[in-house]
Each structure stands twice: as structure tokens, then as C-alpha cells.
Amino acid sequence: MQNRFFKLLCMAMILAAVAGCGKKDVPAEVPPLVKSQQVSLSNLADTAVYAGSVHGRHETNMSFQVGGQILRRNVQLGDRVRAGDTLMIIDAKDVVQQANQGDAQVEAARAQLSLAQANLARYSELYNEQAIAAAVMDQYQTAYDAAFASYQQALAQAAQGHNALSYTNLVAGADGVVSAVTAEAGQVVAAGQTVLTLVQTDELEVEIHIPENHMQDMPIGRPVQVSFWALGNIGIDGVVREVSPMADATARTYKVRISLPKPPQELALGMTASVASSGTNAGAVQNLVVLPLSSVYQTGEDPQVWTVGDDNTVSLKNVQVEAFGDNQVKVRGLVDGDIVVTAGVHRLREGQEVRLAEGQRS
């Protein structure tokens, strides 16, 4: 009897244990934690900043058209001048003598012309009376033509000499600022020798120099941002106006001129400027993203990446690979705000829920 009771008790305990095991909860699957990168189109292009300085668009190296000794310099470095102002004066004594010499040559040529004209008239009458041969008449006609040509030449030389009198005054051709003076009173200068530089201030520009591997950053007509340290680094719009076709022989950089459609009123020549350019061009930079090479998932012909949706599920998105680098790849086809899985892409499946590390979604 006792053995039977003991057996029943054991069976009851076993049944209770089995029943308890059947009610145990199975733990839910925890979404895997993935490493990701959020796409930001504002950071797609490598922004390059170049240092430069303010220049005038028109910078004229001024010189006298005749040589001589400088008698007076009327301007100082930095002076503002107006069109028509006399900047320098050279000694005109030699030029006056050249003009007088020209006038004397005109009188001599006029006298020769008068004689040739009188001879031609006299021998024309004789020829009409058939008193001389045609050959003699031709000689006097030729003499008259030569005298007339000599007279015209003397007139031209005299006019040139009188014009030279006005060249003894160096006159500003436009409003501007004297940015350099390379000659002083008492110095003897030759015709064409630079004595000062005049910068027209009605149109200011910024000049920068860029290396040859960044030439594509500055095509003509490209808008850029220009800031000036002296004016609080406030950015203004600029446009690339001119790119030198030849590099500097020493620095191997290319000169670029940036026009300023609306320059600040306080802007002055020589101020330090910074020019910011964002990569190659807007069309080429758009949607160009640099990702780790481990982000690319490819099982067929088209490369893809896993993107994380708002519900934290992943889906494949086609991309176009532009270039490979050191463990990096440049792709197109993503939009601003996309979250791309950058590691473990071959362990994911379509629609799978994942977890993002803290701070990986803005």
C-alpha cells in the first residue's frame, strides 16, 4: 500500500514539473546593433579655402611717352586722383627743341616745294610751246612730286614734335589710387619706363592662387564665397572672372581673379581675403557621398547599400560607384538624411529590424 502511494506521488511530481516547463516564456529576438553613417549633403564636397588680397580690376603701369628728367612729382603713394590730374612732369627743354627743329624742317621743305612748283610752271609753258622735250618736262614734274612728298613728311614730323610737348605731363586717364611709385624728382627716365601704378577703384576684385590639382574647383563663372578678415569675416558673393592659362614659373600655381558684384563700402585695396569653393561644381558634387568600402553590398550586377528607415528596418538601395580609395568608395544615389549601414552588411536581410548606436540618427 505504501509503495503504491509512493509511486503515485512521484508521478504527480513529474507531471507538475513537465507542466511547469511548458509554461516557460521563450525570450524575444533582440534586433542586432549596427554601425551606420548618416548622409549630409552639406558635407558632400570638400570645401577649399584660398587666401588672397583685394586688387583693382584695372591696374595701369604708367610711363612717359618721351624720355627726360623728372622735374616734379605731384602725387604720393596712396593718393586718390581724378581723370585729367597731372601726376608727374618731366623737363620739356629737349622736347621743345625737337619741336622747333620740326618747324624749321617744314619751312625748308616749303621753300623747296615753292621752287619746284615755279620750275614746273615755267617748263610747262615751254613744253606747251614745244620748246623742250618731254623727257625734260618729266624731270621737273618728278622734282615737284619729290618736293611735295618731302613737305608732307616735314609736316608730319613737326606734328609729332608738337604732340611730344604734351607728353611731358603724365596725366591720369581715370579716377583711381596711386598704388606704387617707382621714380622720383630729378631722376632721368626713358620713354616707356614705368614710373607709377594707378589702380582704378570703381571695380574691385580678389586675386588668389590655386594649385594645379584644384583647377577644376575654379571654372570661369563659378560663384564663390568671399570673406575679409578686416571686415569681420562677413561672407559676400563673388564670381570667378578670370583664370590664368599658365602656371607661375616658381610657385606652380595659377592666378585666379574673383569679381565682386556688390563689394562692401569699407573694402580697401590690399585687404586680406578668403575665398571658399566647394569642390568641383554643383552638378558633379550633388549626391556624391564618401562611404567605407564595407558599406557596399553586391550580389548581382548593381552595387547596393543597406539604408535604415524611420521604423528601424533595413532595405537595399541601388547606388552608382564613382571611385575607390583607401578603404573608401564614392557613390551617388543617396539623399540627404539617409542612414547607411557601414558594417556587417552580408548578415542583414530585407525588412529586418536593427538598432542604431546612440547619436547615429539626428
What this model shows, in words?
- It is a single chain.
- The protein has 362 residues and is of the alpha+beta class.
- It folds into 4 domains: 33-44 and 286-356, Beta Barrel (conserved putative lor/sdh protein from methanococcus maripaludis s2 fold); 47-57 and 200-283, Elongation Factor Tu (Ef-tu), domain 3 (Beta Barrel); 60-89 and 174-198, RNA polymerase II/Efflux pump adaptor protein, barrel-sandwich hybrid domain (OB fold (Dihydrolipoamide Acetyltransferase, E2P), Beta Barrel); 93-166, Helix Hairpins.
- The protein has 4 helices and 23 strands.
- The protein has helices spanning 2-22, 93-128, 134-166, 282-285; strands at residues 33-34, 36-38, 47-56, 59-63, 68-73, 80-81, 86-90, 169-171, 176-181, 188-189, 194-199, 204-211, 223-228, 236-243, 253-259, 272-278, 289-292, 304-308, 314-318, 320-324, 328-332, 339-341, 355-356.
- Strand 20 and strand 21 (328-332) form a beta hairpin.
- Helix 2 (93-128) packs antiparallel against helix 3.
